[in-house]
Amino acid sequence: MTITCGFEAQRFINPTVKNIPPSGIRRFFDMVASTRGVISLGVGEPDFVTPWHIREACVQSLERGYTMYTSNYGLPELRQAIAGYLAERFGLSYDPQKQVMVTIGASEAVDLALRTVINPGDEVLIPEPCYVSYRPITQLAGGVPVTVPTTMEDEFALTAARLEKYITPRTKILILCFPNNPTGAVLNEAEMQAIAALVKKYNLLVISDEIYAELRYDGPPRSFAALPGMQERTILVSGFSKAFAMTGWRVGYVAAHPDLLAAMVKIHQYTILCAPVMGQMAALEALRNGRQDVERMVAEYDRRRRLVVSRLREMGLECFEPRGAFYVFPSIKVTGLTSTQFAEELLKEEKVAVVPGPAFGSSGEGFIRCSYATSLAELTEAMNRMERFVARRLAFKHRAVAHA
Amino acid sequence: MRKKILELLENNGKLTAKEIAIMLALPVDQVAKEIAAMEQEKIILRYHTLINWEKAGAEEVAALIDVKVTPQQDVGFDEIAGRIYRYPEVKSVFLMSGSYDLSVLVQGKSLKEVATFVSQKLATLEHVQSTVTHFILKRYKQDGVIFEDQEADRRQVLQP
């Protein structure tokens, strides 16, 4: 590109955008990408490819000429199927005409929800560690992100007692993402009810990102919206990426109070128009005939989860047992390294990639995220390598202590 | 519990009792005991390895043979099946519904070897009425495993 003298591109960039820090894992990503023979436990998506019948449904829809726009809300059959699924799985009753909209992944739904409800200066409660998008999207919408740290002592669950300390008269929204990325934490019934009581008491709105809802290992999935009095106060965000191994299709959805949904569709129709029809056709097949696939994948994740937790503990890392998603979040404090040191040195010495905890918020310091969405053979090999690495660090630390 | 153990072992015979126990949240000695018992009871017959012999450079010829037989009084098809499956060249034998009776998989080093086996050993057996030989040209998928899978891991190495 030829750059004309005197043109300063930076001058044109909105200061809010300028002030958003670049991705925390960019540098580490480059390190991993340029190393050969790496086993990556740093991937945030299923290792399964989308089940064949779902792919086949998409191909057939293309052959039948489904190549056009759909309604802004999404295909009526798909909205109907989503409402049916939410009813059957969570006992939630939504009107598919007025309360359900198909989005470009759950990510767009989170963005739409925040942009629809935030007034400049509104405070948004964000339990951390959490997925990386909530804070920047809040800032882009003019909101003020308020971090609510969770701890390993609480099994990374959000407790009402802690939450209440962060509520101010300016608090408007609480974002929940359980089962959680990166910790795998879930909220139990009592915790959810206590949080719901606060939501009512302080008249808050909840954006519940339930993209990992199906990946639960301690019983059937629960939705925050299904708690008494919470459905109208909850913007329920979900999608097909994790449960059906459909990340690249970019199909998600949002279910909410009709007035909130009507407001959200205004943004969606001008910015997105509609989610791609082929992805929607695939999603329809997933909901109609994909139950067994989900069960098969969840059973497989569950076995790997137990194996990884057991191996991490055996090598001397403190690790709480995750009950959802496909991540474990062990503490690496015992090694005396920071999360970033641990990740970089592990990569260099044993070619295993993990994500340093602080990528998900400062309360993630001292932890690493390991995804078990990787084949059993690779997981076992990765655990063997990590075990060697940890053993060396612990031996080094003990020698240093003995020497002192 | 047995079913769960078997499902794991069917796909990976290398798993240790300890690994299985952890993955299924069962006591390790109990898993070891069950596996031993199932071996004893011939529920677990063998720990099998699926090999792509073509890739290993070994030439092998295999044929599926449809065999029509005359069933015998009292013993039905079992007697003749037994006479067939005892040949080491025969890798599997199934009793089929439909237009023929036994499906026999025969493996040999060359086309000629398999053809000779069929014409001299199989077709000449008493009670065998006819045989139709189908040579296998290419294996795409066997025992649930796709041989030349195009579905590599295409995920980015690191994602939040």
TrEMBL record, chain A:
| Superkingdom, taxonomy of origin | Bacteria
Q: Which family does it belong to?
A: Belongs to the class-I pyridoxal-phosphate-dependent aminotransferase family.
The stretch of residues making up the signal peptide is none
Its lineage opens with: Bacteria, Bacillati, Bacillota, Clostridia, Neomoorellales
Q: Name one GO biological process term.
A: amino acid metabolic process
Aminotransferase class I/classII large domain location is 37-385
Q: EC number(s)? A: 2.6.1.-
Gene3D superfamilies linked to this entry: Aspartate Aminotransferase, domain 1 (3.90.1150.10), Type I PLP-dependent aspartate aminotransferase-like (Major domain) (3.40.640.10)
Top EC class for this record: transferase
Q: What does the record give as cofactor?
A: pyridoxal 5'-phosphate
Record's InterPro entries? Aminotransferase_I/II_large, AspAT/PAT-like, NHTrfase_class1_PyrdxlP-BS, PyrdxlP-dep_Trfase, PyrdxlP-dep_Trfase_major, PyrdxlP-dep_Trfase_small
Protein name (record): Aminotransferase
Molecular function GO labels: pyridoxal phosphate binding; transaminase activity
Query: Per UniProt, which keywords does this protein have?
Result: Aminotransferase, Pyridoxal phosphate, Transferase
From TrEMBL, chain B:
Residue limits of the HTH asnC-type domain? 1-59
Q: Which InterPro entries match?
A: AsnC-type_HTH_dom, Dimeric_a/b-barrel, HTH-Siroheme_Decarb, Tscrpt_reg_AsnC-like, Tscrpt_reg_AsnC/Lrp_C, WH-like_DNA-bd_sf, WH_DNA-bd_sf
Instruction: Spell out where the chain crosses the membrane.
Output: none
Q: Domain of life here?
A: Bacteria
PROSITE patterns for the chain:
HTH_ASNC_2
The yes or no answer to whether the keyword Amino-acid biosynthesis is present is: no
Identify the Gene3D superfamilies for this entry: 3.30.70.920, Winged helix-like DNA-binding domain superfamily/Winged helix DNA-binding domain
Q: Which UniProt keywords apply?
A: DNA-binding, Transcription, Transcription regulation
One example GO MF annotation: sequence-specific DNA binding
Q: What is this protein called?
A: DNA-binding transcriptional regulator AsnC
What is the protein's species of origin? Moorella mulderi DSM 14980
